[in-house]
Give the backbone structure.
Amino acid sequence: MRVKTSSDFSLASDRGRYREIVDQYRPELKSYESIYRDLHSHPELSQQEQRTSSIAAHHLKFFGYSVHEYIGGYGLIGVIKNGHGPTVLLRADMDALPVHENTGLGYASKKTMIDSNGVEVPVMHACGHDVHVTCLMGAAELLYLARFEWRGTLICLFQPAEEFVSGAQAMVDDGLYSRFDLPKPDIVLGQHVFCIEKAGAVSNLPAMAYLYPPASGNIPWHVRHFSAWLATSKASVSLPCHRIKHRTSFNTCDSSIAGMLILKLDVGCYESRSRSRCL
């Protein structure tokens, strides 16, 4: 957001002023630790994020945001219009993965849900979306408390079905930018936790940092003569594609029929040509 500073401030002075504002209005973080643990213990699969969405909506309403729910499923936005200035959209994804948690944490997920194929599966926040939701809730509080320090429109967006690579488009198709009299964002800021950085570090890239949805897809991969333990247990497999020049990732879910294991590979690529090579 645009902070009220003199035009002749140096960049270093601006940074110092931003830090002062964050330090002055920083919310009490212990409550957010509790929120994180609660979200981690109660993950929800894509397109089933009802509880998580409700928690985020209640939080935004408490701080006076204008809240619009059920956009493209369980997506929601909280809006503060705070005078003339830029429009900033902050985004967090909410869904979890069909993964069994074996961390041993006291707040580890023990939850199961019925997936889109009608199969009961374990569910875990294995991709950090519980952190994303918690961080955006904290940012929403800080920016509300610091609202006299900036001017513009703030949109806090909680997105469903990121793992299906469908939730963002579903929100747009459901009238995200047409139903609620919102100005077009000047900037959209997403976030993702990353395991290679030190705690407290923030990194950014001037270009694409994650997979390009239009180049994603899924294919069934049939494997014959699989071992007996695969036939009797729910196994999941991760296959890195090291030999393809452009970065690509595979996530798999499995099912089986007599004499065959069927791995359904979700292929995420940066470019369409990479996807074509994978397929």
